[in-house]
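Sequence, please.
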C-alpha cells in the first residue's frame, strides 16, 4: 500500500519525442492503472495538436498506463514544446519529471489547467530554496499573474501559499527543522520585497471592496495570503489593513488580520486577540481558533 511514484522522462532525438513512463510504490515496481491526461504548449503558450503512438491528432490526450514501465511515441510538428502532464490531477500520484525551471514558469503563465499551474509554482518555490537565481524568475512571473484582472482570486491565493515545511524537508537527507523554517520565512520576505508595490496595491483594492459578505470568499482568502507577505516586511499598509480587519465582525477576516499580526508585533497582536476573545467567547468553535493563535 502507498501512493504511486510516477516518473515521466522525455527522450528527444532527430526522429521525434518519446515519453518514458515508470511507476513504483515504496521503491518497488507497481502495475496500477494510472490515467494520465496530457497536452503540449508551444513557445507562445498555445496548445498544439499531437499524436500518442497511432492515436488521432488532438490537443489533449488520455493515456492509460498499466505497466511498471512503458514508452510512448509522440508525433508533433513543433520543436520547442512544454508538456502539461497529469492535467486536472488525473491520477493520485507523486509525479517526477524532467521539467526545467523555465518550463515550470511557462506552465505557470500559459497553461489553462489550474492544478498544473499550482503544481508548477510549488516546484518553483522548492527550487528557490536551492537556487537563489530562481527567485527573480518566480517574482517576475508572480507580478504578471497578480496584474491579471481575470484570474480567480481563490486560485491566486493558492499560488501565494508556499509548500509545507515537510516538502522542504524532503529535499534533504539530514534536516534541521528550525533552519528550514527560518529559510522559508526568508524566502517569503524576499518575494514580498520584490513585489511590495503590487501586493500593497492589491491589498488596498481588496480591503476597500468591503469583502466581509458571503460572496467574497476568494477575495478574503487572497487578502489573508497577501497580508502574511506584507507584515513580514513591516509594510505600513499591510499593518494598517491587518489591524482594521482584526476588528471585523466577519470571523474569517478577523482571524486573517490576527494571524498576520501574530507574525511580527506580539504586543499589538495580544491586544486584538483579547478583543477577539471578548467578542466570540460564547462560540466554542471560534474559541478553538483563538487558542490556536494564542499558542
Amino acid at each position: 500500500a502507498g501512493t504511486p511514484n510516477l516518473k515521466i522522462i522525455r527522450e528527444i532525438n532527430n526522429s521525434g519525442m518519446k515519453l518514458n513512463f515508470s511507476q513504483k510504490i515504496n521503491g518497488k515496481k507497481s502495475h496500477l492503472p494510472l490515467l494520465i491526461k496530457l497536452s503540449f504548449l508551444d513557445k507562445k503558450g498555445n496548445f498544439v495538436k499531437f499524436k500518442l503512438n497511432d492515436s488521432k491528432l488532438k490537443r489533449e490526450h488520455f493515456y492509460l498506463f498499466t505497466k511498471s514501465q512503458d514508452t510512448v511515441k509522440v508525433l508533433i510538428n513543433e520543436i520547442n514544446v512544454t508538456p502539461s502532464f497529469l492535467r486536472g490531477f488525473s491520477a493520485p500520484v507523486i509525479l517526477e519529471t524532467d521539467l526545467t525551471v523555465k518550463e515550470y514558469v511557462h506552465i505557470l503563465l500559459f497553461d489553462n489547467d489550474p492544478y498544473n499551474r499550482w503544481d508548477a509554482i510549488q516546484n518553483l518555490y522548492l527550487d528557490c530554496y536551492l537556487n537563489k537565481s530562481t527567485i527573480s524568475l518566480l517574482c517576475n512571473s508572480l507580478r504578471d499573474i497578480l496584474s491579471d484582472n481575470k484570474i480567480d482570486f481563490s486560485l491566486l491565493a493558492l499560488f501565494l501559499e508556499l509548500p509545507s515545511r515537510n516538502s522542504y524537508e524532503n529535499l534533504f537527507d539530514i534536516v534541521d527543522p528550525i533552519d528550514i523554517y527560518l529559510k522559508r520565512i526568508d524566502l517569503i520576505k524576499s518575494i514580498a520585497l520584490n513585489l511590495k508595490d503590487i501586493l500593497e496595491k492589491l491589498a488596498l483594492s481588496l480591503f476597500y471592496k468591503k469583502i466581509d459578505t458571503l460572496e467574497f470568499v476568494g477575495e478574503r482568502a487572497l487578502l489573508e495570503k497577501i497580508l502574511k507577505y506584507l507584515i513580514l516586511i513591516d509594510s505600513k499598509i499591510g499593518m494598517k489593513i491587518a489591524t482594521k480587519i482584526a476588528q471585523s465582525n466577519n470571523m474569517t477576516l478577523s482571524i486573517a488580520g490576527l494571524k498576520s499580526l501574530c507574525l511580527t508585533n506580539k504586543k499589538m497582536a495580544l491586544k486584538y486577540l483579547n478583543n477577539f476573545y471578548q467578542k466570540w467567547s460564547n462560540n466554542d468553535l471560534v474559541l478553538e481558533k483563538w487558542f490556536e493563535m494564542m499558542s
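The longest strand covers residues 16-25.
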